[in-house]
Amino acid sequence: MNFSLTRRNVSLLTLALLAVFFVSFNLFANLTFHSARLDLTENRLFTLSEGTRTLLENIEEPVTLRFFYSESLATDYPRIRTYAGRVRDMLEEMQAVAGDELILEVIDPEPFTEEEDRAMSLGLKGAPTTEGEVIYFGLAGTNLVDGREAIPFFSDEREEYLEYDLIRMIQNLSEAEKPVLGVVTNLPLDTGAGGLLAAMKGQSVSFMIYEELRSRFDIEFLEQDFTRVPDRVDTLLIAHPRDLNETTEYAVDQFIVKGGKALIFIDPHSEVSLTAGPNGEPVRGYTEASNLPRLMDAWGVEMPADEIVSDRALAQRVQAGFDVRRQEVDYPLWLAIGSEQMDENDLVTADIDRLNLGTVGHLVKREGAETRLTPLVTSSKDSKLLDLEYVKSGPRPDELVRDFNPTDDAYILAARVDGVMSSAFADGPPDPAGNEEAEREQTAEAHVAEGTEEANLIIVADSDIFDDRFWVQTQSYLGERVAQPIADNAKFVLNAAENLLGADELISLRTRERSERPFLVVQDLRRKAEERFLQEEEALQAEISAAEERLTQLQTRAGSELGGRDVLSQREAEEMRRIRHQLADSRSELRQVQRNLRRDIEALGGQVRFINVALMPVLVAFAALGVAWYRRRRRLKYSGR
C-alpha cells in the first residue's frame, strides 16, 4: 500500500498524533497531578485560605470525617454530582494540609446496607428520588472523646459557605471545649417572636444569628439580675437588655474594668422587639429602647436616646403605596450599609459587603474621655438626625425623601472602644440592700476602681441587626432550615465575637462569602427617577387635593338645601363638571408618572440584555468571519491565484 506525504495526509497524521498526545497527557496528569490546583477565579474561591491552613496545621486532637455520598444513585442528578465533586476535592485538600490529624473516609451508602444505617445514626438525612431511592450527601465528624458534628445534607444554596462550614466543624471537634459566650438580652434570640409561650408549645423558631452563635460558642444566658459574671465566660454579648439594676451594672462594670471583652447592642427604637408573635402582640416583657448610660459614660461614649439616623444614600428599598398602587421606594430609616461605610483596617469589618439595619441610633465620644473610640460603621454624609417621637409617628417613605435636608455629617453607627477603663462606681460597690448573694460577692472580691489591663468593647447602636427579615431568607430542606443571606449581619456579629476572643482565623473564611453586588448605575438612575417622580407626584397631589376640596364644598352645599334640587347656579354646576374632568385628568397624569418611574430602568435593562444576548454574539461571529476571510486571502496570495 502506497502512502504519499501529501499536504492532506500530513494534516491527518498530525491530528491523529495530537489526539494520542492529548489522551496520554490527560491520563498522565490524572495519575501524577491528582491534587494539583490552578485557581483562576478573581477572588481565588477554590483555594484554601490562610486561615484554613493555620487551623488545619494546629489541630489539637485527631478528627475523623466521614463523607457519605450515594455516587451511583446521583448519576442522574448533575447539580448534586457537580457539587459533590467540589466537596470531595476540598475535603481531600484539607486532609493533605492537616496530615495524620485529619482522617477522611469516603462512603457510598448503598440501599439496605450497614453503611446506610450508619449514616442515619450519625444524623445524616437522605433526599428521596422519583424512583423511590434515597440519596445521601452529607458529612459526619467525630473526635477521640464523644464530640460529634454533622452536616445532614449539603445544599448548594450554601456553596459560598462551604469552606467555612467544613473548617468550623473541624475546629469545633478539635477543640477540647468551645469558648463560652455569656449572653445578657431581652430579645427572644432562642425562641423567636413567639417567645416562651411558643417554645412551650414546640413552635419556637430561633433567630438565625443565634443558631450561628450556638454552633460556634457554648452559650450561657445570664439572667438580667446577676451579681457577678462567671469566670468561665470568655466574652459578654449584651443585646438590647432591659434597664439593669445597680447590682447587675456593677457586675458588668467590674468585668470590663478587669480587662473583659464585650459585644454590645443598644437601640433607641428596637423594631425587632416590637415584632408581633403568634398572638399578634410583641413578646411579653419587651423593651422598646435600651441604653447603658452610666456604664457608657465610664467607657467614654454615649448614645443619644432620642435621635434616629436617616440616610437617603443608604436607604433600603421597601414597598409603599402611592395613590391606589404600590411602588418600591427608598426608606431612609432602614439602612443598607455598603463596604464604603466600613473600617477597612479593622478585621471585623474589612470585608463586610452589606449590613441591613433598621431605625438606627448613633454613638458620640464623650468629651474628655481617655478611652479610644474607633468607628467601625458609619452613615453616609447624605444623612440627618430625626427626633424619635417623629419616627414613632410612622412618617411615609415619600414624606421622608421629599423633606430631606442632609447635615453633611457621617454618624457613627458602630465603634470599637478600647483602653484602660475606670469604674462607673467610683465610690465602691452599690449597697446590696438585703441581697445576700451580692453581699457575699462584694466581700469575696475587692472593688477595682482603675483597671490595669486594656478592655476591648464593640458597641452597635442598633438591635434590628438580629432580625431575620432584615438579612436572611430561610427555607426548609429535608426538615432543616437553610439560610440564604442577603446581607452580612450574621457575619458581622460572629466576626466581632471571635475577634474579641482573639480567634481571627475563621473571620478570614467567613469574609470570603460575597453578598450580591449592587448594580450601581441602576441604583443611581432609579434614585434620580424617583426624585422627579416625587416632585411631579407632589404637584399633582396638590392639584387633586384642591379640586377635591372645592368639589366637596359644592356637593355639601347642594346636599344641605332642598335635597340638592335647583340650588346650584348654572355656573356652579359647570364648575363641578369641570372639576370632575380635572380630577380624572390629574389621576390619569399621576398614573402616567408612576409608569414613567420604571421606564428609564427598563430601557437600560433592555440595552444590557441586547448587548449580552444579541450584540456580543454578532460581534464574535463577524470577528470570526473576518479572520476566515483574511486567512483565505493569504492562502490565495501565496498559491499565486
Q: What does the main sheet amount to?
A: 7 strands, mixed
Amino-to-carboxy terminus distance: 34 Å
Question: Hey, roughly how much beta strand do the residues contain?
Answer: 15-25%
The Cα radius of gyration reads 33 Å
Sequence of strands across the biggest β-sheet: 7-6-8-9-19-18-16
Mean pLDDT: 81
The parts where pLDDT drops under 50 for at least 5 residues are 511-517, 562-566
How does the helix and strand content classify structurally?
A: alpha/beta
Number of strands: 21
- Please estimate the helix content: 40-55%
Structure characteristics:
single chain, 641 residues, alpha/beta, seven-stranded mixed beta sheet, five-stranded mixed beta sheet, 21 strands, globular
Characterization of this structure:
The protein is α/β, with parallel strands linked by helices. The chain is 41% helix and 21% strand. The protein is built from 17 helices and 21 strands. It has helices at residues 7-32, 50-57, 78-98, 114-121, 162-174, 195-200, 208-216, 246-257, 293-299, 388-392, 397-402, 436-444, 468-471, 489-501, 505-510, 520-560, 570-639, and strands spanning 63-69, 102-107, 126-128, 134-143, 148-151, 180-185, 218-221, 235-239, 261-265, 301-302, 307-311, 315-322, 325-338, 354-358, 364-365, 372-378, 383-387, 412-422, 450-460, 472-477, 480-485. The radius of gyration is 33 Å and the shape is globular. The two termini are 34 Å apart.
